[in-house]
Amino acid sequence: LVMGTIPVPRSPAGLTGLCPLAGPSPTSSIHVYTQREVYGTVGSHVTLSCSFWSSEWISEDISITWHFQAEGSRDSISIFHYAKGQPYIDDVGSFKERMEWVGNPHRKDGSIVIHNLDYTDNGTFTCDVKNPP
């Protein structure tokens, strides 16, 4: 069976995330790219791609967070976080046993895989990338 659409917008603010620099310097940005929609089949797996480009070097403090907002819900939950060189799958919701980190920040990739898809996975996934400072 084909599962419904899994939209994967980057952020509510559009395709450019802003990351302020220290002091009164102008703002530098990170551009984050995802597929607009991803389709999956119940029981299979799907890769949620998240690539990014930054005008600055990739910091050791880079962080990547994935959020999920179920279709029809107003609430969003954090389902994955990458920080200090380590992936962390949040111990909340139904994704904790089905998620796999396949990204590599040094290759500007923050992608994840969700295994054993279910109809309840239908919703909006958001990839947030921060590259301090």
From TrEMBL:
<dbReference type="InterPro" id="IPR013783">
    <property type="entry name" value="Ig-like_fold"/>
</dbReference>
<dbReference type="InterPro" id="IPR013106">
    <property type="entry name" value="Ig_V-set"/>
</dbReference>
<dbReference type="InterPro" id="IPR000920">
    <property type="entry name" value="Myelin_P0-rel"/>
</dbReference>
<keyword id="KW-0732">Signal</keyword>
<keyword id="KW-1133">Transmembrane helix</keyword>
<keyword id="KW-0393">Immunoglobulin domain</keyword>
<comment type="similarity">
    <text>Belongs to the myelin P0 protein family.</text>
</comment>
<keyword id="KW-0325">Glycoprotein</keyword>
<protein>
    <submittedName>
        <fullName>MYP0 protein</fullName>
    </submittedName>
</protein>
<keyword id="KW-1015">Disulfide bond</keyword>
<keyword id="KW-0472">Membrane</keyword>
<feature type="domain" description="Ig-like">
    <location>
        <begin position="26"/>
        <end position="133"/>
    </location>
</feature>
<dbReference type="InterPro" id="IPR007110">
    <property type="entry name" value="Ig-like_dom"/>
</dbReference>
<dbReference type="InterPro" id="IPR036179">
    <property type="entry name" value="Ig-like_dom_sf"/>
</dbReference>
<dbReference type="GO" id="GO:0042552">
    <property type="term" value="P:myelination"/>
</dbReference>
<dbReference type="Pfam" id="PF07686">
    <property type="entry name" value="V-set"/>
</dbReference>
<dbReference type="GO" id="GO:0005886">
    <property type="term" value="C:plasma membrane"/>
</dbReference>
<keyword id="KW-0812">Transmembrane</keyword>
